[in-house]
Amino acid sequence: MKALICGISGQDGAYLARLLVDKGYQVYGTSRDAQSASFASLRLLGLENKVTLKSLAPTDFRSVLQTMVTVDADEIYLLAGQSSVGLSFEQPMETLESISVGTQNFLEAIRFVGKPVRFYSAGSSECFGDADEPCNELTPFRPRSPYAVAKAAAFWQVANYREAYGLYACTGILFNHESPLRPERFVTRKIVAAACRIAAGQQQGLRLGNLDIHRDWGWAPDYVEAMWRMLQQPTADDFVIGTGRSHALRDFVAAAFAEFGLDWTQHVESDPTLMRPTDLRYGCADPRKALDRLGWQATVDFAGIIARLTGYERDRAAGHPPSLT
Ligand code: NDP
Fold this sequence. Notes:
Layout: E1 2-6, H1 11-22, E2 26-31, H2 40-44, E3 51-55, H3 61-71, E4 75-78, H4 85-90, H5 92-113, E5 118-124, H6 146-165, E6 168-174, E7 177-178, H7 187-199, E8 206-208, E9 214-215, E10 218-219, H8 220-230, E11 239-241, E12 247-248, H9 249-259, E13 268-270, H10 288-294, H11 302-318
Parallel strand pairs: 1-2, 1-4, 2-3, 4-5, 5-6, 6-11, 7-10, 8-13
Antiparallel strand pairs: 9-12
NADPH dihydro-nicotinamide-adenine-dinucleotide phosphate binds next to α1, α5 and β5.
């Protein structure tokens, strides 16, 4: 089996590449500029010589079509696109184009080539907006950021091509999932890295936005397993993926700082200038369909995620080989 992972340089791309290589797939991965990208995550996972890397610009139909024809994959995972909610308020058009136009180009290219390829599109729980209840596949979308609007558009593009042209195309509506491969722009990694530096006397304090938000945080390697399972079903469908548990950011901060022997209240302040124009108060998955149909459920809970993230940071700071399992 041959798989094409678009966005292989990112967190999910690297973990998915590892999963597929371990399953015996021939894995191709793309970056917008494969000549200059660092692929640090692939190196950390020891995969740099186990995958074939190509350049692909999701917003350029010719680039998408040419790569698709050259690679001739059985499964395509579209993970590429501007992935930060915060940045999407600063770069709304880049966000919309990279996600929505990118998805459209892939769907059109699959339709044009005519091969019965299986297609996974990286959807997001941000599409649900500020839901008060755990969200499932029937929960209406109320997107509250340019990122979420773009992901909602991509979701309907996939659903439309599945219905209109019979494509095997799925969207995984994934809640937040974390790992040490997340860049520090994302809040969990930012908190853990800062706590480690503060404990070592290398940083004074940490300023964060709204500490009262609640999120359903999972462990990224679990989530790429769900992506793969979605493409092994008899028919294509969309799935909500999450742990089904929600925690306050304040609790994440307290637990992460405690791992380094710190009282977070002495070091962290909430800064109104870091708050987003619109933010979501609460996010929680209802992942029962994934359990019923995919046999998938999260294996790492909130405490386990914090232990893994802080353990990685501590090992790295001490110069020990960090664990990425
Ligand atoms: P990353 O940000 O780690 O990786 C995203 C990839 O997209 C990068 O490899 C990058 O590749 C590419 N990319 C970044 N910006 C652009 C752009 N403007 N245009 C085209 N390509 C771009 O994301 P994750 O691995 O964390 O997530 C994978 C996908 O899943 C993303 O689509 C994300 O939105 C979605 N998602 C992630 C969640 C999470 O919690 N991690 C939750 C829900 C959805 P390169 O720079 O090499 O071209």
